[in-house]
Amino acid sequence: MKRRFESIGVTVVLLLAAWITGCGADGDGGERFVIGSAAAGTLPASLAANEGRSVAEAVTITVYKSPTCGCCTAWEEHLRAHGFVVESRPTVDMVAVKTAHAIPASLSSCHTAIVDGYIIEGHVPADLIARLLKERPDVRGLTVPGMPMGSPGMEGPYKDPYDVLTFDAQGNTTIYASR
Predict the structure, then answer these.
(1) CA 102, CA 88: separation in Å to the nearest integer?
(2) Helices 2-21/70-81 angle, 10° precision
(3) Is the distance from CB of 33 to CB of 114 less than 8 angstroms?
(4) What is the pLDDT of residues 23-58, one digit of tens each?
(5) Are the CB atoms for 32 and 119 separated by under 8 Å?
(6) By the 8 A CB rule, do 138 and 170 touch?
(7) Which of 27, 118, 136, 173 could form a disulfide with 141 if both were Cys (CB 3.0 to 4.6 A apart)?
(8) Domain count of the chain?
(9) CB under 8 A, 24+ apart: contacts of 162-166
């Protein structure tokens, strides 16, 4: 129980530090993203054009993060190791990014990514992002709220169990996977 409490405390401190140092819009007015750009159950054109390649290899994921956040950089490396093309956008105003994408505080983490019309919030494993792109559910995206120890980019001396959630425009969530 003590380790679980310490993990929660560390997660809160890390999340607050990430918000304070900021990860946000690049200052040029930001991009606007269309959520759910492809019909459910169909592969987006970027994937169909790359048949024979993995879902991850066919798509670029844009990651908004603090320029000083090590766990965000580690998560980007996790994505690259799984074949994603990562476009890193270090910023100092993550609140603006999260506001622009209507990410509820209860679902927030330190970085926000956009991939093929979906929002990826926090330390979501690459295989689940690939699954999302293949299945194309009618959701806004996936999130791992907070910063659970042992999630991609948050590797450490132990691993806490965590859920990867889908979320919709109303903030409703469902468990997509448990790790």
Answers:
(1) 21
(2) 100
(3) yes
(4) 333 333 333 222 333 333 334 444 443 444 455 556
(5) no
(6) no
(7) 118
(8) 1
(9) 164/124, 164/125, 164/128, 165/107, 166/137, 166/139, 166/141, 166/142
